[in-house]
Amino acid sequence: MKQILALFVVVFVFFGCTQKQVVELKLPGKNKIEKKVPQKAVEEDTVTVVEEFVPIEIKEDKIKEETIPSGTMNDTEEMNSSESFVENKIDIQIDKTKAKMQLAFIYPSSVSKYARSSLNTISGYLSYQKADYNLLVIDCENESYDKISSAFSKVQQEGITNVVALFTPNAISTLNKVVSSDLKVYLPLIEKKDSLESNDGLIFGSISYDEQLKKLSYYSAGNNAMFYQDTYLGLKLKRSYDSIIGDAVVRKEIGKNERNFKSIVNDYRLRNSSLFLNTDLVKTSLILSQLRAYDVFPKIIFSTQLNYDPMLMVLTQDKDREKLVIANSIDNVDTKLKDEITTFGGNITYEWVDYSTLVGVNYLFNNGNSSLIPTQVANNEVIYTPRLFKSTEVGFLEIK
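Structure for Periplasmic protein, as requested:
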């Protein structure tokens, strides 16, 4: 009897365990065929107030590609939920009496190498001013009449009257035809003397190499000599030298691929001369080192803004630069403003185009001159005051 009872118990346990093995627990979603819902494709928004600007990395938190005034919302303020975002948008109160900066920046990518840094300078200035502004950036590709005309048509369609434009003197004839009197167009790369026509809409911002050479010539000891390069700027400096100083016991062209400077500097006429170097940074550095290497010592050596660059101290030795005097038209500005522009990637300490751009955007922002920038605009041109500098181990020291 005990054996029969034991047998029933074994059978009961066996079937009970087997039944548990085939029972499936119905968890949420378990064994259901999940249907994949196709996501709706998001169409790219091609509408923007900022034109394509390939050479420049425009930081989204710095320059807004939208029509909302930049001063209406703190860029660092984060929304905790979609509801709070809606509430904040409803509660925004725009003070329509507040002055707003409407500015366009036009550049031809085919010729302008200064576009990125100039735009960074503008952004840094407007950030420093905590300005309420809209910025339209246009790459007009080249300096043809059609491209320039099209760019200014876009500016007028947006109702913008203040423009910074990085055109070369080659575009001045077109600009005189395209720019109407209701616009203010600041030109960092063009001097007023480059325009044969009068146009009140154009403001000329290029530094004057003529004024720099005049300043340097005051300290000439006579017996002038001049080196120049066969480049656009080299030939421009040569023309300025010929019109302002004229005479030269030595006048030599430095070839683009020149590597051997012995025949150039080993000239007895250079001894005790007043040598003007209208050459770029690399060529100037080589000339300075070779003059000392061949024991040829001019009485004084002059150079323009072209060599006002801290890299000069890297490429030459202190003794190479002992008699070098450099003209510079970049003036000192507020330290906080300089730091703000530097943060954005501009260089108003050594890059004269950036400094010229700063003068221009300050003039347009204030609808005239202001004490923030010492360099002023008069009769539609920037009036620069050249200063003279000696080089030291760590930088430049002004000659008082």
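The chain has two domains: 47-61+99-207+330-383, 210-328.
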